[in-house]
Amino acid sequence: MAVEFPPETEEDERHRSEVATLPLDDEAERQANDLYEQGLMAHMMGQRYAQASEALERALVLYRTLSDQQGEANTLHYLGRVRAATGDFAEAIELQEQALTLYRILGDQRGEANTLDHLGRDHYMTDDFRAAGNLQEQALTLYRILGDQGGEANTLQYLGRVRAATGNLDQAIEALEEALALHRALDNGPGEAKTLIDLGSFRAATGNFDQAIELQEQALTLYRPLGDRHGQANALHSLGDVHFQTQEYGRAATMLEEALTLYRALGDRYGQANALHSLGNVHFQTQEYGRAATMLEEALTLYRALGDQYGQANALGVLGHISAATGSEHQAIDLLEEALTLYRALDDRHGQEAILDVLNRIRAPRNWE
Asked: Any idea which fold 268-369 has?
């Protein structure tokens, strides 16, 4: 799922107060601080990523010229968050690792915890779940030492995602329920909404669709008055996926199209790719093969640009199904073999088995249904 940013978190508030206390020894320092503030504000709006990136990159040059390691670390951290928001996870990881090194040199445990948390999120988004879990555990330990319940709640949420991705659904739900309790105790509406979306998805995975829809509708209700379009897009996408699972394809398509519109307006390529993939699945199930193929091919292009091998493999698999269903067996075999190669590189046995099953049925046409 896409990376989402609430209007302002405790971490954002802290950085805004920090920049006000940075030394103003000369005009360059003042200019760097002003640019950092501009970038931070644009980032928090959740839709002005190009503006945020430009301001933060200019601030970074100045902080480095001034040998201001604290300013440099903070700017690298937020540049990493901007890159992640637009799906550039490889660069996001590189920037966060640079920030982490500086925070450790400075002995800044809070900066270290925040960066470990976001590094874990970025590794989660690139399907490196082992690294993600390790980084999130480190962040959680530091937040608890610092008594930072907001940081603890956010990290527990992402740990829940990691545990679900590695098949530990019960542990995932436990972590999310702990996060939800903390967010509610802190009256953190955006954090509560994000956690409700994940809880809804995991409840759907256990077959409890009614509760899943209820939880995700609560999240959407929380996001709308906040004006958080990223959050709304994520909630709509999750609701669309649940309605897809309950075979309510019309409702699923409506919600997914609304989510796609928001992701495009936000410039969130990862969100766009996932919404297009989900819409392609909907149209495949309703046998609208031309529309399904168009959606999936666009998703595939985005996944390739993002370097998302799982996304590519999944999209290629459905495109192979479509080609087989429309009688283009040679094309289907080419697409499925490409998907199989990716699943093997990812050591995804379930994906490999699913593709091999389809390939076997194509090569024995009488068994293809």
From this structure: 1.25.40
Rounded to whole angstroms, the Cα distance separating 106 from 92 reads: 21
Q: How many CB atoms lie within 10 A of CB 123?
A: 24
Percent share of the chain, pLDDT over 90: 79
What CATH number does the domain located at 207-267 have? 1.25.40
Average pLDDT over residues 330-356: 94
When the candidates are 3.20.20.70, 3.90.79.10, 1.25.40.10, 3.40.50.450, the CATH number that belongs to 1-107 is 1.25.40.10
From residue 5, how far is each of 48, 114, 294 by CA, in Å? 12, 14, 30
Q: In 54-66, which positions are buried (b, 16+ CB within 10 angstroms) versus exposed (e)?
A: bbbebbbebbeeb
Domain-wise residue ranges, the chain: 1-107, 207-267, 268-369
Measure the CA–CA gap between 330 and 87, rounded to whole angstroms.
33
Q: Mind listing the pLDDT tens digit for each residue in 272-309?
A: 999 999 999 999 999 999 999 999 999 999 999 988 99
Q: 3-class SS at 336?
A: helix
pLDDT in tens, 91-128: 999 999 999 999 999 999 999 999 999 999 999 988 89
